[in-house]
Each structure stands twice: as C-alpha cells, then as structure tokens.
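User: Fold this; tokens only.

Assistant: Input:
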Amino acid sequence: MNSCLLDTGPLVALLDRSEPAHDEVKSVMAGLRGLRLVTTGAVITEAFYFLSDVRNGSDSLVSFLVASGIEVRDAFSAEALNATVRLMSKYADVPMDFPDATLVWTAEMAGADAIVTLDRRGFSSFRFGRNRRFKLLLDL
C-alpha cells in the first residue's frame, strides 16, 4: 500500500471549519482512499496545540486519528532526533521546524514522497533520499 504523509496545517484545517483551507483539504483528503496516512508524534503534538482553542478540537483530533487508522511514526529516537537536527540546520534558510524535519526524516525511512501540506514553500524546497522531491497533493 502506498503511503501519504500528513502535515500539521491540513490536519488542523480538516478539523477546524473556520480555517480558510478547510474545504480544499477536506476534498483532497476524501480522495486519498486506499493510501496509508502517515505522520509523526511531533505533527500530532503541534496539531493538539493549534486545536486547543477550537471547540472539541482535541476530541476531534483523537477521533480522526483513531477512525482514519493513521500511522503515527516515532520521531523521538536518538537516530531520528540526530537526523532532524541535521535537517533543520541544512534548511535553516527555508526555514524548517521540528515537525517538518520529522516528516522529511519519515519520508526517507518510508520512501513516501506524497504529502498533504499547506507549507508549499518548505516542501517544495526540502529533499530526501537522493535529491527526491515531494509530491504536494494539494497542488495536483
């Protein structure tokens, strides 16, 4: 089964109807049937933060994670942390935050190049593997 990475922005937009990208993300996510959704603990942590002021935001997030069967990768191992620090240093001018770095590291580990992200600038610049580019599914 092919994997698709999920970034914080679309996750929040999907669950918060007041977000400008809500309808776009909802439409794209509906078309991802058959793909395994993958994200990281850092993305989930960031989503909890952004949804903390949204009515039932945390409950909606947990419900979505459970119902979707999303795979949450651990990006807190020594190997992952060292890799993410190197990535954040390499892409400091873009810039790259920790959750972004965990997704790039996960792409490398899983070989997944499809991503649902609102960070078009970042994920158009970031590379993994042998200079592989991400496929930005919100741009297709």
